[in-house]
């Protein structure tokens, strides 16, 4: 079953065409890796799917419905976008990890947060850490946990391991794998050769979004 489908998507900024007539589908439960040269439009594709920007023409479907017609708040809870540079807010780690509960008017489940922190090798006391004191790798782990406290249907990962050291990278891979095993569809953009080598389903984005599908496994 297709969960996301792009149909004849164009994206223009002024007179410049960033994506030209792009069409492809993503199957429910897939782990898709988008690769391609810098500037080809990979991040733009993720932002379009996340509905952070809108196509100049063409349509993006989620379970067969045009995403422009869906409730944006509900859609963003189901289709999460994670930036290369993690965006944290407030003062502490707890401020960030409580947020998914607050927007749903739910009580914070500290046991759940504790177990998520454990998966990414961070102790429970980490909740009280000030975000300014975190390393880049720790910030990315906190940002990723925040996006999966309530498991999304689709997780869009925009070079989330770029700049992380080997250990942080491994921990983030473990987390992403566990989210995927629980049924979330993953779409990642990466330039990392080790990630590309193990990727089963690869879509190469050429200039202006022309695609070339590869399957490693
Ligand atoms: N809002 C914008 N205004 C002007 N140009 C833009 C805008 N958004 C994207 N672009 C341009 O569109 C092209 C594609 O950008 P995008 O970030 O999607 O590429 P990418 O394939 O993700 O590149 P990288 O691998 O370097 O991250 C780039 O040339 C970029 O400069």
From TrEMBL:
Gene3D superfamilies: P-loop containing nucleotide triphosphate hydrolases (3.40.50.300). It is found in: Cell membrane. Residues 4-217 form the ABC transporter domain. GO terms for cellular component: plasma membrane. GO terms for molecular function: ATP binding; ATP hydrolysis activity; transmembrane transporter activity. Pfam families: ABC_tran. SUPFAM superfamilies: P-loop containing nucleoside triphosphate hydrolases. PROSITE patterns: ABC_TRANSPORTER_1, ABC_TRANSPORTER_2. GO terms for biological process: phosphate ion transport. It is a peripheral membrane protein. Keywords: ATP-binding, Cell inner membrane, Cell membrane, Membrane, Nucleotide-binding, Phosphate transport, Translocase, Transport. This is Sulfate/thiosulfate ABC superfamily ATP binding cassette transporter, ABC protein.
């Amino acid at each position: 079953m297709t969960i996301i489908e792009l149909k004849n998507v164009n994206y223009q900024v002024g007179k410049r065409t960033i994506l030209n007539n792009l069409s492809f589908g993503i199957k429910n439960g897939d782990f898709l890796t988008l690769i391609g040269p810098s500037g080809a439009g990979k991040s733009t594709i993720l932002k379009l799917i996340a509905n952070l920007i809108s196509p100049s023409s063409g349509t993006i479907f989620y379970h067969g419905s045009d995403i422009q017609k869906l409730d944006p708040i509900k859609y963003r809870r189901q289709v999460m976008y994670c930036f290369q540079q993690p965006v944290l807010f407030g003062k502490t780690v707890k401020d960030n990890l409580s947020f998914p509960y607050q927007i749903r008017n739910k009580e914070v489940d500290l046991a759940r947060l504790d177990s998520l922190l454990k998966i990414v090798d961070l102790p429970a006391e980490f909740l009280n850490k000030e975000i300014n004191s975190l390393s880049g790798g720790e910030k990315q782990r906190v940002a990723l946990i925040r996006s999966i406290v309530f498991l999304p249907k689709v997780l869009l990962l925009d070079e989330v391991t770029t700049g992380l050291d080997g250990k942080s990278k491994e921990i983030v891979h473990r987390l992403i794998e566990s989210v995927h095993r629980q049924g979330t569809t993953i779409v990642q953009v990466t330039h990392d050769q080790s990630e590309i080598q193990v990727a089963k389903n690869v879509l190469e984005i050429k200039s202006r979004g022309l695609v070339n599908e590869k399957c490693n496994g």
